[in-house]
Amino acid sequence: MDKTGGASIRGNQWQRLLSWKRGKKVTEDGEDGENGVKDEAKPNTNLGQKLKVKWTELVFDPAEKFYYVWLQVMIFPIIYNWVIIILRTCFTTIAFNYLTVWMTLDYVADLMYLVDMIITVHTGYLDQGILIKDLAHLKKRYLRSKHFQRDLVSLLPTDLLYFVFGLETPMVRINRLVRIPRLDEALDRMETRTSYPNTFRITKLMIYIFVLIHWNACLYFALSSYIGFGSDRWVYPNISKPEFASMRRQYFYCFWFSAQIFTTVGDTPLPKREEEYLFMIADLLIAVLVFASIVGNVGNVITSLRDRDNVFFPNHELVKAYLRSHHISKELRQRIDNWYQHLHINKKIMREKEILEQLPLHLRTEIAVSVHLPTLSKVTIFQSCEKSLLEELVLKLTPQVFSPGEYVCRKGDVGHEMYIIREGKLAVVADDGVTEYAVLTDSNFFGEISILNIKGNKSGNRRTANIRSIGYSDLFSLSKEDLTDVLSEFPAAKRHLEEKGRQILTKMGMLVDTGEENEGEEDNVETKINTLESNLEILQTKLARLMMELESSNRKMQARVEQLELEVAALGNQPLEDEEERIKRELRGEGVGEEVGWEREEAEGEEEEGLDAKVKKEEQGEDGNELTKDGDGESTKSREGDVEKMVEVDKSGLKDPDDQEKKEKDDSEKNKDKGDDRPGKGDGAEIELEEEKEEKSGEVDSEEGGETAEGDSENKDMKQKDEGQTKKE
């Protein structure tokens, strides 16, 4: 017991010691790792963490090659499901004979569908030209899109229905067919990247037609199985016969039958049953669409090829029609035909600028640099120029093709361009056209001195030799105007090229010393010309601005006139009665205020009532009394005169107020001259003076306050006169 107990105690001690050492070693390793000492276990864990982090943060660019390759890979599982599912459903023999193969391929396709969902989640998209790489945002966008719904439906575990319907019903996997938009995306991207888009377009159409014929063949075999094999001539023959029993024979026969229907060949047996008629009607309707799509796509391809030829090469048919209309000689027409033939056979593109105009400037520059820069850099005067100048010049190069025996330039002609030989041979010949001095080959150039406009050149920018094409020669031409435009932005390069040109002319003995004074004068003249041109541009700009302002003011004036015409027309449509009433109101002084008009109307009403009462009293007095005193007669006459004056005053209210004032002044002067015969003259002298004062005050008020105040003062005067006369009576 003691031995075993001592052994157990010692074993426990050893275990504690080992555990303590292990713990100490772990702590030392941890400290070493913190201090920078290499740790073997730690890098492995860090690598796994880094890979995990990188995968969670990985975002694919849809424009990169990986995404494009993955789309090409996804073509195979999609086409597999579209072809095999219907094949296994209708041809049960094929389904059972290769069941293991089909099941394996099914789940490989499902796995690729799942990987495609993950890659789609990790694929960025462009928002305002910027690639969005936020994975959380990409997940939300994908989950809200229709692509997620389609992908989710395509991966539903419908294979569980095998336990219900059995393995002979692969149609339970028909939900895998909803991935067809992914196939369209892959084929469209391939069409944009291929070098032969027309050929690829035809190939894509044939793939669609093949799948359609395949589906129709499978349905035809299934319908034949439902009706009964060999029951009539229209269905598939009896499979009990050895020649029609093999799987390959069954499929090929059905495919041939379906192709005959869709191509509308017509060499098919006539249907006998209603099901057969319905199947044929549906096939013929689909065949019309298939035939139309084939014809339309092939026609588009042919049209695009013709348009491409018209863009690449000059239109030969138009040139031929022009030559026939002008009765050009047969020899010249033959030369033109040979030139066109050379262009088409050797694919010589003459319209590079028109083709490349569809691209942005920086891409056009890169293409021109890659194609023409090696040739341009071989020209002696351009060898030491900066690259930016050469990049500008390559955009100005124009391709030209010369036929055998055609002269590129002749001696004495004014040089407007220089030439660079891209391919071919040219001969420098004498004036007789027979003697050859030299032969120019690829990368040679000529005519560079004539476009630099160097002062002191003896030839005066004229050609000094005859150059003729030996065979068909491809040249690049650079015009003097294009070179001048480019050099205007590179003054240092311009001086450098002119200096090189002088050196070449000096070696050739073609340079004349014109003196510094002449050069200075010419420089001054050029400076003045440039200044005048700049001033002219400024004046043209100002003139254009003034013309714009003039047009704007004319438009505004015309709009104002039209508005005034509309207002005048609107005023002219108002009734004339309103206008007459307005004039009457102005003459009566109603415009001063409504209260004044009301008071005047009340005063006029009272005056009319008083006049009527007085007239009645006078009539009664004349009938009942025979008092004929002189004073009474005079008073009656005065009353009648007063009534007449009141009527005249009422009438004069519609006339000019100035005429009324003059009339009143004349009446007052007459009364002064004749004397006042009215009764009460001696007794009421003070009253008359007060009345005259009131009349004067009424005139002043009429001048200050208008026609309304004048009418009120006159009414008051008349009332006072009537009251005085009634008292005397």
TrEMBL record:
Comp. bias regions, Basic and acidic residues: 626-684, 713-729
SUPFAM superfamilies reported for this sequence: cAMP-binding domain-like (SSF51206), Voltage-gated potassium channels (SSF81324)
A GO term for molecular function: intracellularly cAMP-activated cation channel activity
SMART domains registered for this protein in UniProt: cNMP (SM00100)
Extent of Acidic residues compositional bias: 601-610, 700-712
Membrane topology listed for this record: Multi-pass membrane protein
Coiled-coil zones: 522-574
Residues covered by the Cyclic nucleotide-binding domain: 381-495
CDD domains reported in the protein's UniProt record: CAP_ED (cd00038)
Tree of life domain: Eukaryota
Iron listed as a keyword: no
UniProt-annotated stretches for the region Disordered: 20-43, 594-729
Transmembrane segments: 205-229, 278-298
Major localization listed first in the record, in broad terms: membrane
Subcellular location as annotated: Membrane
GO CC terms in record: intracellular cyclic nucleotide activated cation channel complex; plasma membrane
Protein name per the record: Cyclic nucleotide-binding domain-containing protein
Taxonomic lineage: Eukaryota, Metazoa, Chordata, Craniata, Vertebrata
